[in-house]
Design goal:
Elements lengths: L1 E5 L10 H6 L5 E6 L10 E5 L15 H22 L6 E4 L9 H4 L4 E5 L6 H4 L11 H9 L2 H6 L5 E4 L2 H6 L2 H4 L2 E3 L17 E3 L4 E3 L5 E8 L6 H14 L4 E7 L14 H8 L9 E5 L3 H10 L2 E4 L8 H8 L4 E4 L2 H4 L9 E3 L4 H13 L5 H15 L1 H16 L4
Parallel strand pairs: 1-2, 1-4, 2-3, 4-5, 5-6, 6-7, 10-11, 10-13, 11-12, 13-14, 14-15
Antiparallel strand pairs: 8-9
């Protein structure tokens, strides 16, 4: 079977699936990516393509995303035509329609089946959930949110089947899309992400070694931003540090814009929160580590006494699942994505997203009763093994691709 994986940030969600498919007998896997960073995808032939033009200056703000998606779609189609001229005809294309790249694939290969990765369908309810750093939600903002789905809806008729990681994400989709979408998580490698009582982590920049005897509070987000409740966590820290003066707080993530809007001041949210909380934090025990290599990230999670994960109603991060697989005790926001994975008091703790005092009290409970809550750590890992393990996910993903390629769906 010939397979084509399309994602501007390849491997993206295909980082496990693409190499697994390439390793099957009589399978050829090709991938298209826009970036020029090194890619680790054994057995996959990676091709690069570039946008043919830039966005139009001063275009209507509601059209910015749509135009960018058209540009990517056109550029991706031209790369596909080159592949076609080389004699490559995919049986199945795995594509992320949210970036626009899937829009014109059927125009190149009309008979090829397309599996769409339906990551998120935008609704105004999610965007209006926490508006602290934005202007009041208006009808114009609701219209802008609606247009973010335009390319997905335009390309939907060409997508033969869809896949989405969680029930929460599936539930955001329009009814007619749900009917042709399977729920299969990308998968967590629980043989790598697992507890290790002997784990140690050396923070060279801080001349600091952390082990299981240390009191460690962790917070991880690709970008430090309101979408992941970074500001909510930071505002709880003065009291958390006062209650637990020996604890080291480790924050992992970039200072980039992320999924939401930038701060109106132009400063990063890290800068904004440090200015707001000036004089209230013990900076000697607060460590901003930036992005971490994966093996170091896992070590940190293995050492975590408390892992805090907040999010608005949006896509769950892999880091949340990896934390649970490592046996971390997670304190999460009581928001729909987390409520799907964490049952309060059984495999983690959930607190009100907006109530700082609840987070402070939950952290205190963990440090005061570590032995009593040990069962939550074990249950958290078991949750990931039973429902989100990589081997289980890969089996289901591969079966779906085979069925789609063989027209048995």
């Amino acid at each position: 079977m010939n397979l084509l994986f399309v994602h501007q940030n390849f491997p993206g969600q295909w980082k496990h699936l693409a190499p697994a498919m390439a390793a099957l007998p009589n399978h050829r896997a090709v991938a298209l990516a826009m970036h020029d960073r090194p890619i680790h995808a054994p057995g996959v032939e990676v091709r690069r393509y570039n946008a043919k033009r830039s966005s139009t200056p001063k275009i209507h703000p509601w059209s910015i995303d749509f135009e960018s998606q058209m540009i990517r779609g056109e550029s991706c189609a031209e790369a596909c035509i080159q592949l076609r001229e080389e004699g490559f005809i995919p049986d199945v294309i795995c594509a992320h329609p949210g970036w626009g790249e899937a829009l014109f694939l059927k125009d190149v290969w009309p008979k090829t089946k397309i599996l769409g990765y339906h990551e998120f369908y935008y609704h105004k309810d999610s965007s209006s959930f926490d508006r602290e750093f934005a202007a009041p939600f208006s009808w114009k903002e609701a219209c802008r949110i609606r247009t973010k789905n335009a390319s997905f809806l335009l390309g939907y008729e060409d997508i033969d089947w869809g896949v989405t990681p969680t029930h929460f994400q599936w539930d955001t989709l329009p009814t007619r899309v749900k009917e042709r979408t399977s729920i299969i998580h990308d998968g967590i490698d629980t043989e790598k992400a697992k507890p290790n009582p002997e784990s140690k982590l050396l923070i060279k920049s801080q001349d600091l070694t952390i082990d299981r005897e240390s009191e460690v509070i962790t917070f991880i987000s690709r970008n430090l931003e309101p979408t992941r409740g970074f500001h909510r966590f930071m505002r709880a820290l003065p009291q958390i540090q006062a209650n637990h003066p020996n604890a080291h707080v480790f924050i992992v993530g970039k200072e980039g814009q992320g999924y939401g809007a930038p701060h109106p001041s132009g400063k990063s949210y890290k800068e904004v929160m440090l200015e707001e909380l000036e004089g209230q934090l013990n900076l000697k025990r607060l460590h901003f580590l930036g992005p971490l290599p994966y093996n170091q990230l896992l070590k940190l999670l293995q050492l975590s006494s408390v892992h805090v994960y907040f999010t608005i109603p949006f896509v769950l991060s892999w880091s949340l699942m990896e934390a649970m697989a490592c046996g971390a005790l997670v304190i999460g926001s009581r928001t729909p994505p987390l409520e799907e994975v964490i049952i309060h008091g059984q495999n983690g703790l959930l607190v009100d997203y907006f109530q700082t005092s609840e987070l402070v009290e939950a952290v205190k409970e963990v440090f005061q009763h570590p032995n009593r809550l040990e069962s939550l750590r074990q249950a958290a890992r078991q949750t990931i093994i039973e429902g989100y393990d990589l081997r289980y996910s890969l089996q289901r993903q591969q079966a779906l691709i085979q069925a789609l390629g063989c027209n048995t769906l």
